[in-house]
Design a protein that fits this description.
14 helices, 35 strands, alpha+beta, single chain, five-stranded mixed sheet, 34% strand, Immunoglobulin-like, disordered N terminus
Length: 697
């Protein structure tokens, strides 16, 4: 289990007795200094005025560090408020200098009239306190004897009592001298609520507060609310977002003790919980227990998606803020990586749920967007691939412009950017002269242009050698003749079969016996009005394109034609899914060179996580090899069939709304069962066969 929820529950505790706080009596603010310093607190608050940094020629006092401490400000024994005590450490910066105008020097540095070298230093220290929706600023005057004013040395500290704040609030504190001699010191602090402090008997609103624990419930999380019988209280689950804002997710009014279960797929780092009694002016207690949960961070990236907005804008949508960087890249056809377009298009930091503009002149299907976090690629989308069609066999020319109108041109290829012209042995180098001619004659599409350079997409289709045309024509003629031969020979196969529904069959390569069973099922389905695609029959395409590109092409074609994707589960497939759900990826050794099932998980699982699977996917497994309950719960959002015992229902789901009558389905199920059973028997008898009847763990 990634997060020790039981330890988290014990750390949070069921009672508020965690920290005992010092008590201050009365409501008067106060300031005190360390030994050797004198200080004075100005009456009332001052304006929090911004200002630039002032450069002084002599020594000045500047804040060196900033610390806080929580205390209680009490008006009566049981009537207290939470208060933030602030301590500012002071240091001397700069040296005494001989100035032409000593009097003006004294005024500039805050020294008294007289000998500047023997006069004490003084400074006005401003403390700014912000806790939404209020802001306070106070001013303290501090004097340091000249004997202590040694350059670069700490001279002591000043303490202010104190800023009142609400339980559980987020506060920001700034400290700077006036005038400012350096940037201000600042800190942000999340104050504890009633459960984290020993204040239940001191703050009246904390006495009737519900207490909340978090514990484990298998893979899920249980919220246990310790509330007295018949007590009514509110529960709010919300996403804490930037700048103190929040977005509600679930809100319920409940009564009495409650146990609430959250699915582990709902966890994200900014998911917070807040509870309060349903009474006027009641205090709310809340905390965010999933900030460090690895599963929550993986779920956040799984739910994040890039959304294309017309005409040329985009937005990264996610429930929580992300520290990420976005860059445009060029994805050439094939399994190669997407090449970043930086330079000349620089990367930029991404802000969640904020609309941004693409720095492009023209759209192109090969332009993709990559989102990275800590130098790890997290998300890649090609937003124009659906609207402009599949990837094109174009070459991207990168023009870089330097000073004095110096220009260079290179062609972006998988190994890097090849200068043009060049004597290299790459495809772009061999066609360098023709590409330059196409660029100058206006046959290339300009995608981007500014003072740094430009990007051009040049078509490569016309450079395919002409002699291959006859070879392809001969192959097409041979395929047509072969197809006609099979049509004439298989006269029992009706024309309706060519119009049948498309089905993409995905399976894990567990063993040779299991693959024979998959092939037998696919062959039997082809005899029905179904058009079946399976990786067992596509070895050449898998070798040329790679399993991921092959799967994307087959899935897009199947779903565009109204077909269905069949996920055939086995013990190996279940293991791959669990590994993906736990780690966000499948280990390289877990997938074979032609394993389309392992390659498809990055696309299939998001469809199930986002609720896009019903109507597009079905799940199946073989009797005796895998129990339906062993299929991961995430995939049970679509129909699950056990074969061959549920073949009629399975075939009806594959054929869709226009399925045959029940009697006809039963006949076809019997045909498929007769073809499938010998392969299943062989699978169970083979030495490398997977274990029988795997049930739920």
């Amino acid at each position: 289990m990634p997060v020790p929820w039981l330890l988290l529950s014990l750390a949070l505790g069921g009672s508020p007795g965690v920290v005992s706080l010092e008590r201050l009596v009365g409501s008067q603010d106060a300031a005190r200094c360390s030994q050797g310093l004198s200080c004075h607190l100005w009456d009332g608050d001052v304006l929090c005025l911004p200002g630039g940094i002032t450069h002084a020629p002599g020594p000045v006092l500047v804040p060196a560090h900033l610390r806080t401490e929580l205390v209680l400000r009490c008006h009566r024994e049981t009537d207290c408020d939470l208060c933030v005590r602030v301590a500012v450490g002071l240091a001397v910066r700069g040296h005494w200098q001989e100035l032409e105008d000593e009097e003006e020097s004294g005024r500039a540095l805050g020294v008294e009239q007289g000998d500047a070298g023997n006069a004490p230093l003084q400074a006005q220290v401003v403390l700014s306190f912000q806790s939404y929706p209020t802001t306070r600023c106070v001013l303290l005057e501090v004097r340091v004897p000249a004997a202590l004013a040694q350059a670069g040395q700490s001279v002591g500290s000043v303490v202010f009592d104190c800023f009142e704040a609400a339980l559980g609030a987020e506060v920001r504190i700034w400290s700077y001298t006036q005038p400012r001699y350096q940037k201000e010191l600042n800190l942000t602090q999340q104050l504890p609520d009633c459960r984290g402090l020993q204040v239940r008997d001191s703050i009246q609103n904390c006495r009737a507060l519900p207490w909340l624990n978090v514990s484990a419930d298998g893979d899920d999380v249980r919220l246990v609310l310790d509330v007295s019988e018949e007590q009514r209280f509110g529960l709010l689950l919300y996403w804490s977002q930037v700048q103190g804002t929040s977005k509600p997710w679930r809100h319920r009014n409940l009564t009495g003790p409650q146990n609430i279960t959250l699915s582990h797929t709902d966890l994200v780092p900014c998911l917070c919980i807040q509870v309060w009694p349903l009474e006027p002016d009641s205090v709310r207690t809340g905390f965010c227990p999933f900030r460090q949960d690895p599963r929550a961070h993986r779920n956040l990236w799984r739910t994040a998606r890039l959304r294309l907005l017309p005409p040329r804008s985009w937005k990264l949508e996610a429930p929580c803020s992300l520290q990420a960087e976005v860059v445009l890249c060029w994805q050439a056809p094939g399994p190669g990586p997407c090449q970043p377009l930086a330079p000349p298009v620089p990367p930029e930091n991404v802000t969640v749920n904020k609309v941004r503009e693409f720095p492009l002149l023209k759209d192109h299907p090969n332009i993709c967007v990559q989102v990275s976090n800590w130098e790890k690629l997290q998300l890649q989308e090609c937003p124009w691939a659906d609207s402009l069609g599949p990837l094109k066999d174009d070459v991207l020319l990168v023009e870089t412009r330097g000073p004095q109108d110096n220009r260079s041109l290179c062609a972006l290829e998988p190994h890097g950017c090849t200068p043009l012209p060049s004597r290299a042995s790459t495809r772009a180098a061999r066609l360098g002269e023709q590409l330059l001619q196409d660029l100058h004659s206006g046959q290339c599409l300009q995608l981007w242009d500014n003072d740094l350079g430009a990007l051009w997409a040049c078509p490569m289709d016309k450079y395919i050698h002409r002699r291959w045309a006859l070879v392809w024509l001969a192959c097409l003629l041979f395929a047509a003749v072969l197809f006609l031969f099979f049509v004439l020979k298989k006269d029992r196969v009706k024309p309706a079969a060519t119009r049948g529904r498309a089905a993409l069959l995905l399976h894990s390569a567990d063993s040779a016996g299991f693959e024979r069973a998959v092939g037998a099922l696919a062959s039997a389905l082809c005899r029905l009005p179904l058009r079946v695609a399976v990786d067992l029959w596509s070895g050449r395409e898998l070798s040329a394109q790679g399993p991921l590109a092959w799967f994307h092409a087959q899935r897009r074609q199947t779903l565009q034609e109204g077909g269905v994707v069949v996920l055939l589960f086995s013990p190996g497939a279940v293991a791959l899914c669990r590994e993906w759900l736990q780690d966000g990826a499948v280990a390289p050794g877990a997938r074979g060179p032609h394993d389309a099932f392992a390659a498809s998980l990055n696309c299939v699982l998001p469809d199930f996580l986002h609720g896009r699977a019903p109507g597009r996917y079905v799940v199946a497994c073989f009797d005796g090899l895998l129990h339906p309950d062993a299929v991961p719960a995430l995939f049970r959002a679509v129909p699950v069939f056990s074969l061959p015992s549920q073949l009629p229902e399975f075939l009806g789901s594959l054929q869709g709304p226009g399925a045959s009558r029940p009697r006809r389905l039963a006949e076809r199920a019997e045909q498929v069962s007769r073809a499938l059973q010998p392969a299943l028997d062989s699978c169970f008898l083979s030495p490398g066969a997977p274990g029988r009847e795997t049930g739920p763990e």
